[in-house]
Write a structure and sequence with these properties.
mainly alpha; 2 helices; elongated
Amino acid sequence: MFFRIPRLTPGYIRYLQTQTAQTVLQSREGPVMQRMAILLGFMGIGMSGYSSRQLTLHYKPSSQLFR
């Protein structure tokens, strides 16, 4: 397979630098950020389920609905 190597312009070099810096920073953070994201996701799902349950438990239908 043949692929074209991009021309090394200053903008492309800067892009490569930012990509490398981002990769290094992500590897330093380790699994802590991933675990935090998963924890926050589960908390959001739990709060959504809880609030939905509270709404259905205390819901009183309108009397005008079934006329």
